[in-house]
């Protein structure tokens, strides 16, 4: 029986405060005949959700240190554009399968999600639902099955193209967050 050792992998999660304060006077409350203040809780909830999305996507898209070719989780340049042919998806899936853990062993996790901006949403959905992909310009025999059908669940976010650092051409293959979360969000209390 081999002896093993335990090590630590550390990371820092720091909760920051994001808030909006407003005040109501007694006169405001007494004169509220139309129930306008009833809508405040809905607007506060929506505002909180928008702020969370803004903070999350800004951090996610500030990925120059995380998504790199050196880490093996980024493919740039020619051939990396997501198209109906699925060629770049094949290359990205190979990169994902080659990812290793801290000990150098394979992650043993397959990609489940295809995260795209709205500009690539139709392509992602076509790759997910189409039974076959054909090239009608060639006069040769070729397989017509779509090996990506039902393989990666498409997720679309407008933040990918609208947040700072986002592009209409950026797309991501991700693991199921229950198996391997890409990011962590902390809430105080």
Give an overview of the whole structure.
Strand 1, helix 4 (121-129) and strand 2 form a beta-alpha-beta unit. The protein has a three-stranded mixed beta sheet with strand order 2-1-3, with helices on one face. The chain has helices spanning 26-30, 40-61, 87-97, 121-129, 159-162, and strands at 113-116, 153-156, 172-174. With 189 residues, it is mostly helical.
Helices and strands, in order, run as HHHEHEHE
What is the number of strand segments? Answer: 3
* Oligomer status: single chain
Spatial order of strands in the largest sheet: 2-1-3
- SS field, number of helical segments: 5
> What is the straight-line distance between the termini?
44 Å
Amount of beta strand: 5-15%
Rounded Rg: 23 Å
Query: Structural class from helices and strands?
Result: mainly alpha
Mean pLDDT: 82
Secondary structure elements and their pairing?
Elements: H1 26-30, H2 40-61, H3 87-97, E1 113-116, H4 121-129, E2 153-156, H5 159-162, E3 172-174
Parallel strand pairs: 1-2
Antiparallel strand pairs: 1-3
Brief characterization of the structure:
Helices cover 27% and strands 6% of the residues. The chain is mostly helical. The two termini are 44 Å apart.
Looking at this protein, list some descriptive labels.
189 residues; mainly alpha; three-stranded mixed β-sheet; 5 helices; 3 strands; 6% strand
